[in-house]
Write a structure and sequence with these properties.
The chain is built from six helices and eight strands. The protein is an alpha+beta fold. Helix 1 packs across helix 3 (about 45-55).
Length: about 200
Amino acid sequence: MHPDYPVRTERLILRPFTPGDVDDLHAYRSRADVARYLYSGPSASRQATSEEPSRRTGETRLVNEGDRLWLAVLLAESGALVGDVLLRYTSAVHRQGEIAFVFNPSCHGRGLATEAARAMLRLAFAEMGLHRVIGRCDARNGASARLMERLGMAREAHFIENEFVKGEWTGKFVYAIREQQWSGEGRTPVAGVAGRRQAR
């Protein structure tokens, strides 16, 4: 599946990263509150952040297991980069994927992350024909958990102190949604998608 970029929603533009995204990306990836529940810490410098767009430019299509779509999320009105979203192709045999998202806290409370994540689910189900998509978050990350619940995802697991991250034991929530469950959600077409639903 290879979207015809940019992918557009009502308020957002999703597209591959470019070198010009460094400053906007660093503005939130360098924040301690953004990195709080991520495996990695905040980006230490603009130079460190500058390597990210180049690394992500090749992650624009899903062909083989392990491939990722890692897209910048921009406000359609202003062009400001406000976050990034990911869709990973985890299994061809079982038709499964995983979504993830990180957004600038200055945009919280506006439903932008939910809108972007819904677009990724539409790509996963309507265009790629996946059967099941999961999302994971630190069990202390209530905002992320609530977002996945707004997407119609159900909590399937709560692992307690299953990982030692950044010097402390942490738990994890695993959410999931299947195609037949998603079909009851909003199925507004995503503009700019060239992929086609795979045959069953």
